Amino acid sequence: MIPNNLATALNQRDNIDEQSFDLIVRAYKFASSAHQDQFRYSGDQYITHPIEVAIILTNWGLDALTISAGLLHDVIEDTSCTLPELEKEFGPEIGFIVDSVTKISKRLRYSGNESQVETLKKMILAIGKDVRVIFIKLADRLHNMRTLDAVPLTKQRRIALETNDIYAPLAYRIGMANIASDLEDLSFPFLHPNESRWLTKVMKEHFEQGEEYVQKVHHQMSELLNSKAVSFISIDARSKRISSLYKKLKRVGMDVNQVHDLTALRIIVPTIADCYASLGIIHEAWPPLPGKIKDYIALPKPNGYRSLHTTVFCIDQKPTEFQIRTKEMHQENEFGLAAYWAYHKSKTTKNYQEGNKVSFAKQSELDILNQLKNWQDNFSDGQLTLQSLKEELFMNRIFVITPTGEVIDLPEGSTPIDFAYMIHSDIGDNCIGARVNNKLVSLDQELVDGDVVEIITQKNKRPNKSWLQFAKTSKAKSRIRSALREEEDPTISTRARYKIIVIDQVGIISQITSIFSKNKINIVAVHSQSIKGTRFVHIKIIADIFTKDTAEKILYKIRENKNTHEVHYQF
Ligand code: MN
What we know:
The chain has helices spanning 4-11, 18-34, 48-59, 64-71, 75-78, 83-107, 117-129, 131-146, 153-173, 177-191, 193-227, 242-251, 272-285, 327-335, 337-343, 349-354, 363-380, 386-394, 416-423, 425-429, 474-488, 508-518, 548-560, and strands at residues 234-239, 263-269, 294-295, 308-313, 319-326, 397-401, 407-411, 431-436, 439-441, 453-457, 495-503, 523-530, 536-544, 564-570. It is an alpha+beta fold. The strands form four sheets. It has a five-stranded mixed β-sheet. It has a four-stranded antiparallel β-sheet with strand order 12-13-11-14, with helices on one face. Helix 1 runs parallel beside helix 3, helix 3 runs antiparallel to helix 4 and helix 4 packs across helix 6.
């Protein structure tokens, strides 16, 4: 049978039926015999690792197929088992997932340089095809990070760097913010050993000193809610994660006294109405700090995060942060995309993969997947660099609003041009101006959170080269570039026909044609004929010329030649 710790985790799930259980048992048996004589750096039997991965996936609420693939995730990479053997035993779906996980492990060796574009692309391809691959990869990485101490020193830093720079942001992006923070915190001591020791001490002292205060606030808060008859499920103190504390400290000159949310109180309530009622009660009791009220319920973060945040001058005027949310929001914030899977098990999987109408998937989930697909498409054009991908994946995001109230997710520093291309490539191409919050702005103005943006378009307008200087998203940039390239494409260009009468002499034709070539203009055809009984020759030139300005310029240059008698052109 299966080991106790996995059995315990499975028992806590009420939606694992007998058939699912059998599959998991089979996967366990197969994996444990495949890894039989293998050991981890820690000296443990190798099979302990896939078991822990399966337990993590079980706790995330994922289906039996994903849990089984988790048990099997290292058999292709680390044992003599082949993909066809695995497929024969467990079918193509598990085979595909395990194979994808293996490819990521093999090819993703991140050290922050450009040559890794191809491997990252593979990883993203796998994610785009089946998001369960990334769940397993995250669970795998989580367990590897928990046991990183046993790994040789020379490898530790590289693994921690990869975790911090690639896996944590990916987890965050698919709404698994808590897992992202776990991964960052686990990497932190390996990347910043001194700061880690210092901050661990700071947090410990703060927590010891602050415990009494938190108790007081906790007590007063529950009395307040009771007195106003607002029901709540729980009030918990949550201390700031060490890696997020470090990020904040870097912004405030490493001064711990500047950080007001070392401890925050998290209130879980039954309904959305209770969330706002609680917020009102808090603000009635204690004045809020300006600019610190965040309504992520009305405007969820791009990764789906929902909650109300506020910081108030609490007991003894001490700035204290509160986070208010429903139980459902809390669950989603913890597990992100995995939470959606928890509700919709294997039955719907097939639809999902085939890209049919997906009734269960939230729009935000589809958006993320579409965005991943979009990156992947752009990669094949060779237009995206690792840098731009990293920026998009990992950069801070803002959200702005269309006139019809749709929320658009953009990287920080985006401009109306990025917004326009995010709505539709035609809107981008035809953009001539923008209104932000009902005021006309220039196209290079940086957008900020909550801006209402309206794009003004004009038919047949084309992108301007200068846009490339301030467009931020790779989507806008690649679209502008390709539109500009289309304009230069000879197969669709406009042709100008020149009729020139010049004095006939040796080398006159090359004198004239060189005017075109010096201006990098492609000549399609040249024809010349002496005009009988005169000292003139008639030259006809057909050339690729796109604008009237260029045509005029060439006309002028030809006229400048002292042998020119007459020159005309027409498109
Ligand atoms: Mn593994």
